[in-house]
Amino acid sequence: MKVGLKSVPECRYPAEPPFYPSESYPELLMRGRSAQVNAVYDAVRETFHLLGYDASHRGTAAWNPLGWLIRPGETVFIKPNMIAHKHALRDDWEYVITHGSVIRAVVDYVYIALQGRGRIQIGDGPQTDSKWDLITERMGLDAVRKLYAEQKQFEIELIDLRDEHWIEQDGIYTDRIKLKGDPAGKSLFDLGANSMFAEFDGRDKIYYGAYYDVDETNRHHSGGKHEYEVSNSPLAADVFINIPKLKTHKKCGLTVNLKSLVGINANKNCLPHYIIGSPETGGDQFDKLRARGRLENTLVLSVKRRLLKNSRAVQTAARRLKKLAYRIFGGTEEVVRSGNWHGNDTVWRMCLDLNRILLYGRPGGKFVGDPKKFFSLVDGIVAMEGNGPVAGDSRPAGLIIAGDNPVAVDAVCARLMGFDENKLPLVRRAFDAHELPLMDGDITVVSSEGKWSGDYRKWQKNELLNFRPHFGWTGHVELE
Q: What's the domain range around 63?
């Protein structure tokens, strides 16, 4: 399998949507050019060249680099990383979510492949407390959508896959507002013995999901049953294109393709995020068994059960208690809790389950033998290191990475970041033999940089970007 890698020395995004290209390339169908250099557009195009897509027509008006993937009349679902409208601690956003200039370039080549016939859907399920309208505004997606409507009378559909928006105050969810969700609805899947959690069956694990209702999460993952509710639009699409951001992650080391599929889930409380307890008690919530952790759980789980009753008095008390708890037990960005460390044995399993559902699942909860057509193009122009995925630091990397297999692309990304992919269960276990395989074959990198070509496993540490991991992973994921 080929992975393409283009280096972009400028490490800058164009400022003005809809992010016109600055060159008059012969194959382009959209009018308009930027007076300023759009190095991002050029990099996406050059990555297609590196991968050898439609090489016989390169440099001509007939060049159709995604024609091998997309046929006229098909539906293409494009999933950027739209996790949040801003950084967790400040109003920055360019290194938190996929930049709209990367999406615009991909959309142009999808449209060429469709020959104007078919559907383009752009969607994700952001964090439940994120502001969808602000995300799409900052990404420039409304401007891209308007451009296509005016020039081609072609509708690009923007879809917020969430069923609910949660109102958060002082770290406590105080309201749950119903949203339209995916207009195509959702499907319930039971992976059963094909789930990565099947290895835990019969071990009395208590999973914590995304909300205070612990019982709901465990109803979906018990008795040999491992259920997920997934949005139908990504499942029904003929082609799925992932455009993730290159970032570190507190629960699984990095987030590129494999982790990003949390965004297609329709009920985030079906997603186990950690197992309550420490390794000594069979959990991975904390890194060690401490009296402080037991006390924290006793207090916090008791409060969370009470919060399910939606009492304003309880919410007010919980907001005050959370501030006090952070002073006593330490903040989440300072101490290991909630599975935010290298010993998290839960999230990677959930992510691989979701990837199998995307590739082999279809609306109605059924599985098929042939995987969905897939392509990934990673926005690594300005990446994130440290306390990712929403509280890390900007890391200009100047990279576009692309390929037709999520595992292959993530393995290459991990190595570029200076991580040993074999120390990342999310990546290592994705290579496992399985009834619903995620990866089969060797990986070859074709790159604009000679040092990053060929066999990625032979790259030298001093030639890599050597990202700073999340503090819970420091010393446990780096390439030696």
A: 2-184+227-264+356-463
Q: Is 455 exposed, middle or buried (0-12, 13-18, 19+ CB in 10 A)?
A: exposed
Q: How many domains does the chain have?
A: 1
Burial label, 341 (beta-carbon count in 10 A; 0-12, 13-18, 19+): buried
Poorest-pLDDT segment among 50-64, 174-188, 280-294, 332-346: 280-294
Distances (CA, A) of 473 to 250, 315, 389, 419, 476: 8, 33, 13, 10, 5
Contacts of 395 (CB under 8 A, 6+ apart): 95, 382, 383, 384, 385, 465, 467, 468
Task: List alpha helices for 85-220, DSSP H.
Answer: 100-114, 132-139, 141-152, 214-220
Question: Which amino acid is present at 41?
Answer: Y
Residue 344 within any structural domain of the chain: no
* pLDDT, tens only, 48-98: 999 999 999 999 999 999 999 999 999 999 999 999 999 999 999 999 999
H/E stretch holding 373 reads strand 373-385
Asked whether residue 166 carries a pLDDT value surpassing 90, the answer given is no
Q: How do strand 2-7 and strand 444-447 relate by DSSP bridges? A: parallel
Strands (DSSP E) contained in 56-117 are 75-80
Confidence class for position 235, pLDDT limits 50, 70, 90: very high
Longest dimension (CA), the chain: 69
Q: Which residues contact 389 (CB under 8 A, 6 or more apart)?
A: 83, 96, 247, 248, 249, 250, 255, 259
Please, which residues bridge with residue 248 across strands?
254
Q: Are strands 366-367 and 444-447 parallel, antiparallel or unpaired?
A: unpaired
Provide the CA 163 distance to its chain's centre, in angstroms: 18
Residue 99 reports pLDDT greater than 60: yes
Three-state SS for 408? Answer: helix
Tell me what pLDDT residue 164 has: 86
Q: Is residue 248 part of a domain?
A: yes
Q: Is residue 364 part of a domain?
A: yes
Burial (0-12, 13-18, 19+ Cβ within 10 Å), 479:
middle
Residue 331 inside a domain? The answer is no
Angle among Cα 248, 253, 254 to the nearest 5 degrees reads 45
- In 3D space, the residue among 123, 161, 130 whose CA is nearest the CA of residue 267 turns out to be 161
Instruction: Give the pLDDT score at 298.
Output: 60
**pLDDT attached to residue 55:** 98
Average pLDDT of span 417-443: 97
Of the listed ranges 203-217, 308-322, 454-468, the one predicted with least confidence: 308-322
Q: How many helices (H) and strands (E) does the chain have?
A: 11, 19
